[in-house]
Each structure stands twice: as C-alpha cells, then as structure tokens.
Design goal:
Layout: E1 6-12, E2 16-22, E3 28-29, E4 43-44, H1 54-65, E5 73-77, H2 88-98, E6 104-108, H3 116-122, E7 127-130, H4 137-143, H5 152-165, E8 169-175, H6 184-197, E9 201-205, H7 221-232, E10 239-241, H8 256-268, H9 273-280, H10 284-296, E11 300-305, E12 308-313
Parallel strand pairs: 2-5, 3-4, 5-6, 6-7, 7-8, 8-9, 9-10
Antiparallel strand pairs: 1-2, 11-12
Helix pairs in contact: 1-2, 2-3, 9-10
Length: 315
C-alpha cells in the first residue's frame, strides 16, 4: 500500500523510532517562521478543516500497524500544523482504542491550544511538544510572522491552559534567533512565560541548515549555554540544548538508502528540499531530517535562489 499520510518510521534523539502522521496539506500553518527549514508557508490559516477523509487516514494506519512494528511513538507532525485538522481527535481515539501499545506524540506550534475543542481532541496524547519562540508581540511578529490577528499572548495562555488540563509530558521547544529572541528583555519575558506554562522539559534549538530567510543565523554553542544557565536560575524543569546535538551519530545514523537517493539526485543537479521529496518519493519531513544531518556532516553545499535553497553534494 502506498502511504499518503504516513511517513517513516524515522529515528531521532527526541522521539526514538517514530511513525509520522501528516494530516494537513503542505505548508498550511498559522505561522510563517523566518527559520522554517521547509521554507515559506503556502497558506496562512487558523480555520480548522477536514482536509482529507478521516477514513482514508485510518485505513493507512490499520494497514501499517497490522504487522505490529516496533515503534517508540506515533507522531502527529508533517509540513503543516497538525491541529488544523478538524478530525484529529478521531485519529487519536482510534489509535488509543485499537493500538494501546503505542505512545502518541504531537508536534505543534501551540497557536490553536486556546481552542477548547482542540484541547479536548489531543488530551489523550502521551507527549506534546509545543513551541514558544517569543513572549512579546513585536518579536513574535518578526520571527514567527503569524497570520493577521494571531497574538502571542493567546499562544501563551493556550499553553498555560494545556498544562492545567493535561497530565502527560510537555516538552517545550524554544528557537533562538540571535539578537532578536535572546535580548535580555525578551529572555526575561520568555522565562516568565515558561514559569507559568510549567513544562516538564525545555529544549533550546537554533538554526542548523538554511531557513526561510537568508538573514537568520545560528546561535553559537556558548550563547546557547548562557541562555540555558539563565533559564535554569528560575525554572525547575530541566533545560537542554538540542541544536546540533541530535546529529552526533554521524553518517551511520542515517537511512543509507535515503542518503544514496539524495546523493544520486543532487549529484546530477542541485535541488530544493521539496524537489528532493517529490523526486525521491520520501516525505518532506524525512528529507528535512536527512538534509539537516548531512549539512552538519559537511556533505552539502547550499545556494539560495529565487525559488528557495538548493542543495548539491560535496564529494
């Protein structure tokens, strides 16, 4: 069976071996973050929709899980915001009812968590990994570039409400954009927001391959450790730096078949991540993970053009 909504399983430090479920069409999201590795958001939206028949998604899940594969998580992720899918709750309920041996994770930007219907639909997940990059509207708009009318104060309140309602694990990711999200004023407000949210873990991340905007740079390791120490002064939850740490497994940690497909394609001509996904038949998330790791291993050359970032192979 050819899967349209499932990808992987992929291996990562954060989630181990994870089967991805993509519920939303490519790049439908309330945000257009300057650092996004999948490039600019195609459709900015907050309106939830049944983008695909839920029966179609459940049929794929039943087919894949029939062989009882070994998985650490089944993860709602993809190239858009999963909570935009209006029937995500039915997918959660189906997995919990028929495959209780698997843990469920949700990757989300948290924008829709202020919606009670959204909260009710995801409450059975075992792990929720939301993001929060800014605590002031000015910085939020510079970095996350939300759809008009989306307020960072509502995002924070939604995360606070999630903690009040949700008994599972919350791992909050904070993306550091140097000189914007890490100013003393912003960090203080961000730390205050995190104190209210009370996550079980805070993960500091930064750029490790070209994002949407060329001017975005990676925070250096020294600065990330400084931020880690600053946050840890008041926040009880563990704080870890995840930028680049995930990729210490080297080339052997990657799917060798996917690496060869990527190598074969971009040896012939440079391609964008989206073009690689279409040509290789791999999901954009699998391609993005491989490109991040290959970039950190020094295997790729990047060139930004009008249509996006193009990758070529370094022999």
């Amino acid at each position: 069976m050819k899967y349209k909504h499932l990808f992987g399983p992929v291996s990562s430090r954060r989630l181990g071996v994870s089967l991805g479920i993509d519920l939303v069409p490519y790049k439908h999201c309330p945000l257009n973050c300057v650092y996004c590795e999948i490039q600019s958001t195609t459709y900015l939206q907050t309106q939830r929709e049944e983008f695909f028949p839920v029966e179609e998604i459940l049929e794929e899940l039943d087919s894949f899980l029939a062989s009882s594969p070994e998985l650490d998580y089944i993860t709602f992720s993809g190239a858009g915001e999963p909570t935009l899918y209006s029937r995500i709750g039915e997918v959660v309920d189906h997995i919990k009812a028929h495959y209780p041996q698997y843990k469920l994770a949700l990757l989300t930007n948290g924008i829709l968590l202020s919606n009670e219907e959204v909260l009710n639909s995801i409450i059975k997940c075992d792990l929720i990994l939301p993001s929060l990059d800014a605590a002031t509207q000015e910085v939020f708009e510079r970095v996350n570039r939300p759809m008009e009318g989306v307020m960072v104060a509502e995002q924070i309140e939604g995360l606070v409400r999630l903690r009040q309602r949700y008994s599972g694990e919350i791992h909050l990711e904070v993306f550091i954009v140097p000189d914007i999200t890490d100013t003393p004023e912003e960090l203080e407000k961000l730390r205050d927001a995190i104190l209210r949210i009370k996550p079980d873990l805070v993960q500091l991340n930064s750029l490790d391959r070209p994002g949407t905007e060329e001017w975005v740079e990676a925070a250096d390791a020294k600065r990330l450790i400084e931020i880690q120490k600053y946050m840890q002064e008041k926040i009880e939850a563990p704080i870890e730096v995840i930028a680049k740490i995930e990729y210490q497994g080297g080339l052997n940690a990657l799917d060798s078949d996917l690496v060869e497909r990527i190598r074969g394609i971009i040896l012939r001509r440079p391609c964008t991540a989206e073009e690689l996904a279409k040509t290789s038949g791999a999901h954009i998330n699998e391609i993005s993970k491989a490109l991040r790791e290959l970039n950190n291993l020094g295997k790729l050359k990047t060139e930004r053009k009008e249509r996006g970032v193009f990758y070529s192979w370094i022999e």
